[in-house]
């Protein structure tokens, strides 16, 4: 395997993905490459990936490396964090198997992850999954005890201006398959007109489809300035002690925001806010709802998510994967039916038209003359 190209370099994959133009080598520091990160690299049309960390650590079966492999994007794994000191954005490097060269000098060496190695590592992940599940359950229970204020009304919900009363609320997270699911819900959005809530990058997902978010909720680390300026209200998720690192960015943009100190995830407080302010129905799209999702986000448990879903109960509909629920197929007989239905009124109007009737008589006369001769 040999690849030579300029690099885009960033320790955070989600930041790097925004700058990809196609044809570059992505240099990242991403332990356990998740599905969302892998898809962002695929969409950025990278030629190869150099990872300073382990793409598959063995903790759980993460899907990212397999996605990259299937798209023929080679991965040179675990090359060491020193590579960030040796390279800068735009440098042209050459990958030869598991070795990395810059200006003909060997600067790093790692492990080339081909399909067989990925399968081997994932098998070890599945073998370890039972232990990881035990730890995950214990952490979830432990944090649930600490965060029970979510359902006991002890958490103070800040005042907001967005009107949820007796309306549907659509909470969009830029998670797995969000584009396919959002495409499926277009008719719902157009007809019902739900309150649109973007959780961080979920706001940009709505913009992609031509919708302006009514509210953005999150720590503001993965959303564009454009979306922040266009949305109607911003809620910054702060730590329980009140610290809100994301607020600085909002202030630098000259915008206003509501600060919501709370444990748990931003998508949890988005759903909780909609519920507390009287939403009739809450539709969650792209949200994290299982152990693998949470492990990919680096969380050791899902206490807040469990508690919030326990509280909002029947008002919540999870639209994740809705694109797989039903896919209609356009049949030929339906096409012919539409054509005949469209032609019928045209034929009636044409037959009743004096000019058309005269033309028909003329054609009949010509046909009669041809038969006689």
Automatic annotation (TrEMBL):
GO biological process entries: thiamine diphosphate biosynthetic process
Domain Thiamin pyrophosphokinase catalytic: 193-234
InterPro entries given in the database record: Put_SteA-like, SteA-like_C, TPK_catalytic, TPK_catalytic_sf
SteA-like C-terminal domain segment(s): 320-370
UniProt signal peptide: none
Keywords (A to Z) from UniProt: ATP-binding, Kinase, Membrane, Nucleotide-binding, Transferase, Transmembrane, Transmembrane helix
A GO term, aspect molecular function: thiamine diphosphokinase activity
Membrane-spanning ranges: 334-353
Pfam families membership: SteA-like_C, TPK_catalytic
Gene3D superfamilies: Thiamin pyrophosphokinase, catalytic domain
NCBIfam families the UniProt entry points to: division_SteA (NF040608)
Name the record gives this protein: Uncharacterized membrane-anchored protein
The organism of origin for this protein: Tepidibacter thalassicus DSM 15285
């Amino acid at each position: 395997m040999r690849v030579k190209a300029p690099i885009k370099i960033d320790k955070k994959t989600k930041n790097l993905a925004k700058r990809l133009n196609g044809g570059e080598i992505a240099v990242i520091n991403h332990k356990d490459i998740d599905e969302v990160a892998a898809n962002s690299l695929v969409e950025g049309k990278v030629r190869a990936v150099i990872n300073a960390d382990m793409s598959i650590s063995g903790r759980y079966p993460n899907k990212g490396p397999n996605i990259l492999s299937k798209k023929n994007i080679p991965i040179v794994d675990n090359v060491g964090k020193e590579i960030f000191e040796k390279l800068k954005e735009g440098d042209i490097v050459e990958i030869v198997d598991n070795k990395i060269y810059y200006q003909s000098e060997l600067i790093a060496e790692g492990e080339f992850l081909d399909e067989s190695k990925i399968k081997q590592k994932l098998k070890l992940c599945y073998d370890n999954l039972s232990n990881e599940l035990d730890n995950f359950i214990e952490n979830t229970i432990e944090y649930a005890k600490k965060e029970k204020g979510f359902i006991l009304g002890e958490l103070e919900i800040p005042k907001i201006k967005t009107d949820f009363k007796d309306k549907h609320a659509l909470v969009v997270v830029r998670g797995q398959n969000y584009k396919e699911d959002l495409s499926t819900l277009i008719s719902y959005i157009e007809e019902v007109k739900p309150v649109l809530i973007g959780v961080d990058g979920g706001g940009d997902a709505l913009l992609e489809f031509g919708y302006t978010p009514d509210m953005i909720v999150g720590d503001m680390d993965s959303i564009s300035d454009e979306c922040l300026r266009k949305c109607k209200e911003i809620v910054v998720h702060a730590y329980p002690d009140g610290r809100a690192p994301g607020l600085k960015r909002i202030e630098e943009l000259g915008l206003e925001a509501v600060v919501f100190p709370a444990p748990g995830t931003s998508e949890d407080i988005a759903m909780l806010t909609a519920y507390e302010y009287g939403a009739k129905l809450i539709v969650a799209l792209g949200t994290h709802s299982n152990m693998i999702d949470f492990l990919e986000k680096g969380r050791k448990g899902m206490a807040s998510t469990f508690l919030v879903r326990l509280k909002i109960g029947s008002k919540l509909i999870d639209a994740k994967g809705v694109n797989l629920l039903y896919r209609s197929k356009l049949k030929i007989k339906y096409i012919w039916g539409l054509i005949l239905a469209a032609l019928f009124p045209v034929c009636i109007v044409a037959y009743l038209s004096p000019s058309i009737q005269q033309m028909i008589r003329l054609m009949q006369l010509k046909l009669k003359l041809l038969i006689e001769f």
